[in-house]
Design a protein that fits this description.
By secondary structure, this protein is an alpha/beta fold. Bound molecules: iron/sulfur cluster (SF4).
Length: 272
């Protein structure tokens, strides 16, 4: 299976299952090896400019709308040494500069492999490549303040404000996510907030209003991306023997997307 994928919507399973547990533990502790679903190129939706995206495997959330459930399990990823990932990234360094883009680590949850993430970001910055971390935020305290400087931009998913709603949606509490947002604000690190809009699940106006107020109050949120729910990852759930509950959920209409963006803009944020 090639590391380069056509898109993250390719179903990939068991690609790292032959790696012994002891090697996995060493990889996680040292960051000398990571597990990646794929590298994709040409993204214009994962940070500024045109970007190469490394899709990590491993995630502790279980979002009902997840379009990459094959990234939940680390052993579904391709074992990739830090040297190989760095070399792969190096191929694009000149093009990324011309296109004012960079490298984004997404997933899955990249901070499940926090040592690998820090080392790869450090290598990218040394090559002059802009770095972005797309994260659900729950493991933010794995990185020191100094390590956060290896990330030029954090794309922070805020999935719901109400903790019960968040738990229903993801299986986990959102307090650590909000704490991470506050810490990034205290450090004045640049953040883009990402909010996935799902009709009937995350479209409560009061909840969105609270996320908007919170985000605006942080002072370091440069932009909000409202991401309309879609069904591109639906086909993955069945072969993974997972129960998909959003079979009949439609993408949000333009009115709902506009209303949501307007709620963020009302608080003074740039929302798209
Ligand atoms: S945090 Fe992202 S990868 Fe993890 S379950 Fe949620 S949508 Fe999927």
């Amino acid at each position: 299976m090639p590391l380069e994928g056509k898109s993250p919507f390719e179903l990939r399973v068991n690609l790292g299952r032959d790696v012994p547990d002891s090697d996995v533990r060493t990889a996680l502790a040292t960051g000398e090896m990571g597990f990646l679903h794929s590298f994709t190129t040409g993204s214009t939706v994962d940070g500024p400019g045109v970007r190469v995206v490394g899709w990590t495997t491993g995630c502790q959330f279980r979002c009902l709308y997840c379009h990459n459930p094959d990234t939940w399990t680390m052993s579904n990823g391709i074992p990739v040494t830090l040297a190989r990932a760095t070399e792969e990234l190096g191929k694009y360094r000149h093009g990324l500069k011309i296109m004012a883009g960079g490298f984004t680590l997404s997933g899955g949850e990249p901070l499940m492999q926090d040592r690998f993430a820090v080392k790869l970001f450090t290598a990218a910055q040394k090559m002059g490549i802009h770095t972005a971390l797309d994260t659900n935020g729950i493991l933010g305290d794995r990185l020191t303040d100094r390590e956060l400087e290896t990330i030029n931009l954090v794309l922070l998913d805020i999935k719901a404000w109400d903790s019960e709603r968040h738990r229903h949606l993801t299986g986990m509490d959102n307090a650590p996510v909000l704490d991470f947002a506050r810490r990034l604000a205290a450090l004045n690190r640049p953040v883009w907030v990402r909010f996935v809009l799902v009709p009937g699940l995350t479209d409560d106006a009061e909840d969105i209003g609270k996320i908007a107020k919170f985000s605006a109050g942080l002072g370091n949120v440069e932009r909000v991306d409202v991401l309309p729910f879609h069904q591109l990852g639906r086909f993955k759930w069945k072969p993974l023997k997972l129960k998909y509950t959003l079979e009949n959920t439609q993408p949000p209409g333009n009115d709902l997307v506009e209303r949501t963006c307007a709620q963020f803009r009302k608080e003074g944020l740039n929302a798209y």
